[in-house]
Design a protein that fits this description.
1 helix, mainly alpha, single chain
């Protein structure tokens, strides 16, 4: 039973590490992302 719990915990740890790595990668990749509202554009749908 201990082996099973170690396996489950290691799966959750790997999943958490992968999600954390993706979050950090997204943060670094989108440093120049526009913050706040959408850009204003001259499209007909915006009116």
């Amino acid at each position: 039973m201990k082996g099973f719990f170690k396996f489950i915990i290691s799966i959750f740890a790997l999943f958490g590490a992968a999600v954390g790595a993706l979050a950090i990668f997204d943060k670094v990749q989108n440093k120049n992302r526009i913050k706040g509202d959408y850009l204003e554009c001259d499209s007909e749908e915006a009116e």
